[in-house]
Every structure is written in C-alpha cells, then in structure tokens.
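U., I forgot to send this yesterday:
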Amino acid sequence: MVHIGNSWDDILADEFKKEYYLKLREFLKREYAQYRVYPNMYDIFNSLKYAAYEDVKAVIIGQDPYHGPGQAHGLCFSVKAGVAPPPSLQNIFKEMQADLGIDPPNNGELTDWAKQGVLMLNSVLTVREGMANSHKGKGWEILTDEIIRKLNERDKPIAFILWGGNAKAKAPLITNPIHGVFKAAHPSPLSAYNGFFGCRHFSQVNKFLVDNGIAPIDWRISDK
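Result:
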C-alpha cells in the first residue's frame, strides 16, 4: 500500500483502507498498465513526502497534474528541471518578481518551496497523457479534501493559497480562524490579468507567517 515516509502515513492510514480509495487503487493499476499516466507512480505523493503534516506552513492547491511528457512530478505547478516552465508557472514567476523583486529562475522545479513546508497539492493526483481531467471524479478529490480537513484541524497557523475557481472551491473546508486564506485568479494566461497579477501573495503569505511567529518562506528557486 501507500508509504509516504513521514507523519502522513499515520494521519491518512484509515483513509487508505476505505472503499473509495481501494477502488481508486484498482482504477490506477489498470490505467498505469494500459496507458501513459503522469506523474510516475513513485512520484504521486511527492507533495506529502516533502512536507510532513507538522511542517506545513503554506498550501498551494492545484487542479490536476500536467499531462505532457516529463512535466509532472507530484508537486502542483512544478516541472522537473530541464523541462520548459508552462505558461501558468511563467506567470507565477512574473508575479513573484513584481512582488519580491526575485528574478525568474532558470528552471521550473519548485522542490525548494516544498522542502520549506509548502504543500503543493493538486486536487487530483494523476492524469492520462494528453487528457486533462481524465482522472477527475475517480476518488482523488475525496482524499485531497480530507488532507485539507486534517490541516484545518491543526492548532498552528497555515497559509492556504487558492488560485482559480477549482482551488477557491476548497475554501469551505478551511473553517479554523487561525489559518490565513489567500484567494486570486488562476495564473493561466486566460485569467492571470483578472486578479492574479498584482495579488502579492508571496509577500502577504510571509507577513502572515511572521505575524504568527513562523519563519517566512524563501521563495527563490535555486539554479539546477
């Protein structure tokens, strides 16, 4: 079964035994056997592997993984070093530069954020090649909603970053008043000018963390 390698194993142990997840697992076995599916099966839970439950400072919620070859590796919006950053990620870097003065990095691998406690969670964790949303409604949303609920229960503040309609739909799960919720348009070229550019979430999230006695996030991406 699933082995994440940190506190998430115990926190989600009961979830991985539930009927919906067992059905999802059988579906994934068939999909990986018959089609090209992203990310690699060993990368599916990378967002949780990098950011243990107690270490999460911020959560960025995405939709589903990139569906092109070599892109997805288990962190929303991130691509492996050596893969050209997709347009949404390019716009994230543009806003980061406008907000913090950080020049866009030479790669789109966001593991530096994940290692600092930024949980980069897609709502759906797998996708068939070339078919966006092809694994929607198969059970992933039940699991990822539960992950958000578990984080909501924490007594240490978390910054939840909700970009776009799908992410904003998760807001009702965040009921604990100690947490910060940061909403903006999706960074895709279709919507970035409708409220993503100028949102200044990078500096606002760090202010929220510092105000709550939590070390801020270094948003710079190291060259790879």
